[in-house]
């Protein structure tokens, strides 16, 4: 079987999105209290980066209308979403005024917003932002972490699923 690899000129955004969608990712809520309002979004590009110093990263579209508000917050909350949070993820991608309707959250003293029943809850500050094509790579420094048991929400091929941790053999 012969496989043809197209040149860079053939890498249209629809084709790239389809290819990138074959890689399953977890989903986090990124949220803070800004000017007395809860502001947040869902990101499927969360990655651990470093233990010393403790850093994680998210990638956000440079066209995001929410990021300019979030980046003004003293602290950002990241919540690793559980397998039952599919509807919440869609809600966080919906109209701004309804993103936190009927969502149980905790707001820390410094304004990080954390979803109460998430798998992990991280309080962070912006360490660095790096322009990366049509996205911005945001490195976040961790200041507090809490976790609970459960199955993670997985985003794959534009849909949601779940994954359970494998037990060591």
TrEMBL record:
UniProt feature coiled coil, ranges: none
GO molecular function (one): riboflavin reductase (NADPH) activity
Pfam families: Flavin_Reduct
Keywords: Oxidoreductase
SMART domains per UniProt: Flavin_Reduct
Species annotation: freshwater metagenome
Alphabetical list of InterPro entries matching this protein: Flavin_Rdtase-like_dom, NADH-dep_flavin_reductase, Split_barrel_FMN-bd
Alphabetical list of Gene3D superfamilies matching this protein: Electron Transport, Fmn-binding Protein, Chain A (2.30.110.10)
Family assignment from sequence similarity: Belongs to the non-flavoprotein flavin reductase family.
Stretches assigned to the Flavin reductase like domain: 20-162
Entry protein name: Unannotated protein
SUPFAM superfamilies with a match to the protein in the record: FMN-binding split barrel
Record bears the keyword Oxidoreductase: yes
